[in-house]
Amino acid sequence: MATLVTDNCQRCRFTECVTACPVSAFRAGEEMLFIDPDTCVDCGACIPKCPVQAIYEDLDLPEHLNEWIEINERRSKIMPKITNKEPPYVGADDRKASLGF
Amino acid sequence: MNQTADEIQTFHGGCPHDCPDTCSMQFKVQDGKLIGVRGNPDHPITQGGLCVKLKDYEKRHYHPDRLLYPLKRTGPKGSKQFKRISWDEALDEISTKWKDIIASDGPHAIMPNSYLGNQGLVHGLNGGDAFFNRMGATVCERTFCGEGSCTAWLLTVGPTAGVDPESFCHSKYIVIWACNSVSTNLHHWRIISEAQKNGAKVVVIDSYASKTAKEADWHIAPKPGTDGALAMAMINVIISEGLQDQDYIDNYTVGYAELTERAKTRTPEWAEEITGIPAEDIRRFAREYATTPPAAIRLGVALERTYGGSQAIRAATCLPALIGAWRHVGGGALQFPVWEHPYKFDVICRPDLIPEGTPVVNNLQLGRVLTGETKLETPIKSMMVWNTNPITQAPETDKIIKGLEREDLFLVVAEHFISDTAAYADILLPAAMGAEMEDMILSWGHLYLTYNTKCIEPPGEAKPNNEIFRQLAKRMGYEEENFRWSDTECLENYVDWDSPTCEGIDLAYMREHGFARLKDFGDKDVRARHAKGEFPTPTGKCHFLVEGATNFVAGPFRQMYEGFQPGEALDSLPDYLASRETPDTNSQLAAKYPLNIISPKSHGFLNSCYANVEDKIKRQGEQFVLINELDAIARGVKEGDQVRVFNDRGAFEGVAKISEDVNSGIIVATLGYWRQLNNGTVNCISSAEFGDMGHSTTFSDNLVEVSLA
Prior knowledge:
The complex is a heterodimer. Chain A is of the alpha+beta class. Chain A contains three helices and four strands; from the N terminus they run E-H-E-E-E-H-H. Chain A has helices at 16-20, 67-76, 92-98; strands spanning 3-5, 26-28, 33-35, 55-57. The mean pLDDT of chain A is 93. Chain B is an alpha/beta fold. Chain B folds into three domains: 71-145 and 341-517, Rossmann fold (3-Layer(aba) Sandwich); 147-335, Dimethylsulfoxide Reductase, domain 2 (3-Layer(aba) Sandwich), CATH 3.40.228.10; 587-708, Barwin-like endoglucanases, CATH 2.40.40. Chain B is 28% helix and 17% strand. In chain B, strand 24 (642-647) and strand 25 form a beta hairpin. The longest helix of chain B has 18 residues, at 87-104. Chain B is globular, with a radius of gyration of 25 Å. Chain B starts with 8 loop residues before the first strand and ends with a strand. The model of chain B has no long low-confidence stretch (mean pLDDT 97). At the A-B interface, loops of A face helix 6 and helix 22 of B.
């Protein structure tokens, strides 16, 4: 049970979210971020920070995104912590627009 | 006709829950409905984020179980059978009944019972004090949380806010002593975690591996109730190894010679025997603490919850002066900064109205009071409860229920829901919730005033607490001006707006900005409050030694009444004082009940608030009992088994979680679960005996046994 990152984050990584996390729960994957469910405290502070609505609380997760629960659990355990904002991917703004944001 | 929805409006909010963070919020309102909340991004503590409890605060306002109308009991006590009545009927019945009781038994037969279920200045802890003080009712001492700590702190350093919680960003050595910040002080944890990233070492002292302990660089786990021995041994090491700041001690403290003498025998080896922490670790801890400035201690509420808890807090509060930590920005200790907030408690509570000789009862011992076990000259015939839920929050729960079942007890409750306590009400009044009433929210965790806008109407016929008291006062014939003040006028009168700390701040400013940093506190990056002593004690110094001290409960927790303070003589120096119930101190009891229990706050609930909300229960999980593998095996308990936790006072059930987070000999079960949704609650097993100071709780000073349910 936790908050998690879903596929809208891929090739965006605006990373504003990591600055909102009080417990450093974000992990930096190559293409996207993940949240360590064992560290996350479900405060929800990161959710409105995401410009592409990639972050959900599991209780509000649309069903077609269910697989991301397990992916966050697994990937967060092997990727490094990210606690500072980084520049988004090149083309992130185009990607954001293509997602309709 | 305009078909478009109204625009979304934003209002300033303040979280009213019993938490040190007192978040500044933004309420989003559309069509007269609260549609969302978020943390105020401009507030230096809230920083735009709330917590697991508050993030969907609007849902609690619109919960289908909200009480909408006044109710009158129609079935047996506790049966939750009520019928709807009008406000006039409800208030008439209450005032008539109270007038009758006053005529037959006198006002002492009536008592109020409230706590920090709402931290508002107007609708919160002290909101009804003036009313009941005017009545001459028995005064209710309310010592659920932090009152022993207050006594210990005030004796040692006086009413100082201590180190600015924001200045922890400059600290290099941070000790979180008995506080699960990640769950209960999240916005301070964020500052500490920044300091940690910048190289500060974070030490967490807690008898089990809390979420916060797991984030620490070093988790030290003394046996429950032995923190005083750890603190005394630190004093021993600091003095015996010459790590003290002699110049600071000579100029700004009282009683160093006596403390040195007292600490002489409190060696690390002595403390190892008591705490279970290796002497070498104690030495290392003391040395690191004394030689890594700036060093800051965050004193958690939980430290007081054993018989000797407040003495432990006194010892820990001596440490910063001993090493001169106060000299540095980000050095010192943090207890409750509320001491330097400009609230006029005498105006809020009107202790001047209390008749001479008015008796006092303590709400931890409510069960004893209501069942007659505590002998009172005038037994209690009526009680009004608001902002608290004693059945889950107070100890000796079964006794409280026995008391509430009394047919001759007239119980009035103002509540949001039919809580475990509200279920026993004779008259149940629907109370307004956060966004439905104007208030300012006190903080015991930061240095800001916080404003809360009334931005939606209460549902049904719910009314703010203060409106309930205004109407009751009218019916009782109380004509003091307090009882005519609107909520806004209350705020005008309750805050000392003319004090230097409020320079440039008034109610209009608060309405516009939502929060304001108190001016006395200066810049978090510059200010070292006690660099040159200047403690607000009678001598201006930090008191290791307090001569002639007697026990007391701080005013705001007893309606500002000074009569019948506990008054017994206190040790002039800090020391380790053993718990009542541990295998080491009470082997006879431990033969029957060999395990110590700790009952911290639940991560997903705020005391019993939210423990009736489905999503929050899902998030928090069912009542669990954390147990070490050794203890589980010895009892044939397997992971996931339903277990019963019990002692002579009562029992509750939970699901066993076998874990190394807890050492053998200790179990952990978190607080807040509703009795009507569970088989008993944690406080069924808790003792109502007081701790050593401030009539503190002893929630961590209880022996129990565990068996398969």
